[in-house]
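This entry is listed below:
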Amino acid sequence: YGRKKLKGWVCLKQSPGRENGCVFLDADTRQCGIYDVRPVQCSTYPFWPSLVDDPDAWEEEAVLPDDATITNFETQRYWDAEFGGCEGINQPDATIVPADEIQAKRNAARKHWRRFPGFFIKRRSWRL
């Protein structure tokens, strides 16, 4: 499942034929196949510093659930493998995440990102 190894780190392969989505993302259910042991990048999302610290980036990351109707195509979108997005952002019925959990995930993401050796891969795979 790894496509590139760099100083002991493995970059996950993207799944061919599915708009280059994660190899562990089930195309039918759109659920993570390794949820309980997913990588830090996934387990801390969407509470990355680049999103939490930037209100505009946070708003851009918001997507509508599949069963919602898009009323403004300039500002609303659905999740897709190319651009991602978080269906929980700005949704009135979303689970409220406690502030201490958000901070812990933000800190874990930043700590993990700092240890990652490949600048190019860092910048292409997640924004912190």
In short: The first strand starts at residue 2 and ends at 6. The chain has five helices and two strands. The first helix runs from residue 40 to 43.
